[in-house]
Amino acid sequence: MRYLISTFVFIMLFTGQMKSATAKDFILESPDKKLKATVTINGGLSYSLAYMGKVYLLPSAIGMTLADGKVWDGKSKLIRSGTSQTDRILQPLYGIRAKLREHYKELILEFSGDYSVIFRVYNEGFAYRFRTSLKDSLVLKSEQSEFRFNGDYQCYFHPALSEADYRLNKLSEVQQPNYSSMPLLLKTPDELNIMIHESDVMDYPCMSLSSSGTTENRLMGNHAAYPKRVEKGGHANFNLLVKEREDHIARTKGPRSFPWRLISFEKEDGKILANQLVYLLAATSVIKETAWIKPGKVAWDWWNALNLSGVDFKTGFNTETYKYFIDFAARNGIEYINLDEGWSDQFDLMKITDKLDMPELIRYAKEKKVGIILWCVWYTLDRQMIPALDQFEKWGINGLKVDFMDRDDQVVVNFQERLLKEAASRKLLVNYHGAYHPNGMERTYPNYINTEGVKGLEWNKFDAGGTLPQTDVTIPFIRMFAGAMDYTPGAMQNYNKADWKQIFDRPMSQGTRCHQLAMYTVYYAPLQMLADAPTAYEKEPEYLKYLSGIPTVWDDIFPLNSKIGEYVCVARKKDKTWFMGAMTNWSPRTLNVNLDFLDPDQSYQAEIFMDGPNAERVGSDYRRVVKTVKKGDEIKLEMAAGGGWSARFSLINK
């Protein structure tokens, strides 16, 4: 992370000069004055939040309880308080913007008992965290994180750790499981979006939410207790299932800061796509030399079952097939190929399959300047981490796809950070699958190049219901608020609702071809998959050329007409070129979009891929149109049921 500008810092180190409503109320306003936080000490510690003059969160209690009986809840003596304001421009290594403004006001309350609580208000939202000055080992029994709302708001519950459809219900409507992983989005009667998540989660379990189910309209934070006993189980014994837990959530050591709990507000659905509060709150990068970290696309093997056609060899898990993947990647500027399950024994990464000539494959990939990413089971890698990573470094492997954690307790969080450290020292990227949703660690370790944590395209292989277009146009606003998302798009067999079926080795997507294509612009994924077989893309050269030219990281973002669960539309910029993507659910839709995001006094060539006239019957039907446009022009986007629209706007040299 590089800091370009540090424009203003103001600090008050004593309580007497602070703006307060009462002796124990502390007021903190966002720089744009839209968001106001009231922090109250009154027999405990709580906060309330108002946005645009209206209260949405009532006083909500916070605290932490240690196993030795100490409680950090604001009841001990307030020693000192202070406020500060920070305004600076960040330049991320990669992301959705080349430059990002970090502007917030901060309040620190320091209490007797060796703890402080830090509150921040950004234009993007509100956050708080606990910090301790204790230097000894700590055992955290529990954390109190309360969210009391000023109404029975609609909630988008995510009733699984990482991969599920969202469930829309009111706060008062308790459904089973009464559990939601985060982020969680609430929609108020006046259409305000409230997002709850966390950031900078290190050496600590992730937080989930449950509803109190009372008239209090309250959500409560929960944490998985520390594992006491685990057993192998789950799919193919790839998981370590927790069979017994301790009576505490974390074992750690001070002095340290604990994770940020954050609440963000956006009036327009589309603007959620540009809200980077999670990133802003995360710790800055600990990796000093980063030139080797290269985002890009991946020719993926598993989803398409290695189904090449029109070749003169038997396809499957063999050297010839993967050489074809390498050639395909090299010809089309695709940075990586992925070797999924099968290149090694799943429980011994040092035991390589005899179906592949691994040294020859690695040599060939290097010759073609294509990187290799290897899949592995997490606890196998955990057990063999140092020898396995040393071997991967010796081979010249570029990254790892690590799968089947399916937990978010402290043990797994610590595994993820430990692997990122060790991988970075060997210049290896890491893509986590079967993982909890991102919560800031990717800023601290930018070799953390992507995360699944989403009901993505793979569900069309093995689930009778598959992945629906409605889910596709919900996840950008909720799951992607947390960070990068490895949905793994790119299906070339595309079917409507009536004709789609689940076939494991011949998978197909629900919705149209352009619905899939739009994902490469709508979804943010620094490491982005091409899920289908190389030969499927090669049969449509102009489509492949366009797809392979879409960036995976961006310089700017411009949200457009969008509505959660119905449709999404966004423009993104890389260098001087703009891209725009739009998707709809199973309802056909027409959007009129003004091209205000284009630079003024310039002409652009728009290369447009849109649903064809028969796309509702034949999902792979599309049209390619090229036209000249300029800033301020209005363009009509016509999408079939489950459809999409994608365009590249290239400057015309005068």
What can you tell me about this protein's structure?
The chain has 654 residues and is mainly beta. It is built from 12 helices and 41 strands. Helix 2 (319-331) packs parallel to helix 3. The longest helix is centred in the middle third of the chain and has 16 residues, at 410-425. It is globular and about 75 Å long. The model is unreliable at 1-23 (pLDDT under 50).
What's a quick, concise take on this entry?
This protein is mainly beta. The chain is 15% helix and 39% strand.
First CA to last CA: what distance? 37 Å
Radius of gyration using CA atoms only: 25 Å
The count of helical stretches stands at 12
- Low-confidence spans: pLDDT under 50, at least 5 residues? 1-23
Question: What would the keywords be for this entry?
Answer:
mainly beta, 12 helices, 654 residues, nine-stranded antiparallel sheet, 15% helix, eleven-stranded antiparallel sheet
Furnish the topology, listing elements before pairings.
Blueprint: E1 2-12, E2 25-29, E3 35-41, E4 45-51, E5 54-66, E6 71-72, E7 78-91, E8 100-111, E9 115-122, E10 125-132, E11 137-149, E12 154-157, E13 167-170, E14 184-187, E15 193-199, E16 207-211, E17 218-223, E18 227-233, E19 239-245, E20 250-253, E21 256-257, E22 260-266, H1 277-281, E23 296-299, H2 319-331, E24 336-339, E25 344-345, E26 348-352, H3 358-367, E27 371-377, H4 378-383, H5 385-395, E28 399-403, H6 410-425, E29 429-432, H7 441-444, E30 448-451, H8 459-462, H9 469-472, E31 494-495, E32 509-510, H10 513-522, E33 527-530, H11 534-538, H12 541-548, E34 556-559, E35 567-574, E36 577-584, E37 589-594, E38 603-611, E39 622-630, E40 634-639, E41 644-651
Parallel strand pairs: 23-24, 23-33, 24-27, 27-28, 28-29, 29-30, 31-32
Antiparallel strand pairs: 1-7, 2-3, 3-4, 4-5, 5-6, 5-11, 7-8, 8-9, 9-10, 10-21, 10-22, 11-17, 11-20, 12-13, 12-14, 14-15, 15-22, 16-17, 18-19, 25-26, 34-35, 35-36, 36-41, 37-40, 38-39, 38-41
